[in-house]
């Protein structure tokens, strides 16, 4: 397909295909129900979206006709060496604020009580620290484009490993208390 596309760059071809797919889905949803909301839940790493997925999340957040809100999977702890939660959240906040798109943060229940091998020096944070999810929610609420938060995954809450069950429920209790505020 690329050879016959007229594009001189494979990455431009991939970006365009991804943009057209998201735009077509948006238009299909709006065509079926103009009041329905359409979103994308993309990687939390803006760079990975561009460099590995060819997903131009900045375009989708700043130009109309792509999404109504965005749900980046910001599954990083505060101590993550390469993607600390607050720094990553701040970058998404800047982009979504510029485009007027609500930011719904994706938070990771599944990491509670486990080592995060990709977090560098923060690899033990999900084991040793507490109230991570509630602190992340509080940080997200400070964003001017805050549109909510979602937890991933249901199974991680209700069918978690018995070794971390108490820690998961303690985190959920803290999170629920913040929701009630």
Write the layout of secondary structure elements.
Layout: H1 10-32, E1 39-40, H2 46-51, H3 57-62, E2 69-70, H4 85-99, E3 103-108, H5 125-128, H6 132-141, E4 146-152, H7 154-158, H8 165-180
Parallel strand pairs: 1-2, 3-4
Helix pairs in contact: 6-8
Attribute tags:
mainly alpha; single chain; two-stranded parallel sheet; 181 residues
Describe the structure.
- This protein is mostly helical and 181 residues long.
- The protein contains 8 helices and 4 strands, in the order αβααβαβααβαα.
- The chain has helices at residues 10-32, 46-51, 57-62, 85-99, 125-128, 132-141, 154-158, 165-180, and strands at 39-40, 69-70, 103-108, 146-152.
- The strands form 2 sheets. A two-stranded parallel ribbon has the order 1-2.
- Helix 6 packs parallel to helix 8.
- The longest helix is centred in the first third of the chain and has 23 residues, at 10-32.
- The radius of gyration is 18 Å and the shape is globular.
- It starts with 9 loop residues before the first helix and ends with a helix.
- The mean pLDDT is 96.
What does this entry show, briefly?
By secondary structure, the chain is mainly α. About 45% of the residues lie in helices and about 10% in strands. It has helices at about 10-30, 45-50, 55-60, 85-100, 125-130, 130-140, 155-160, 165-180; strands at about 40, 70, 105-110, 145-150.
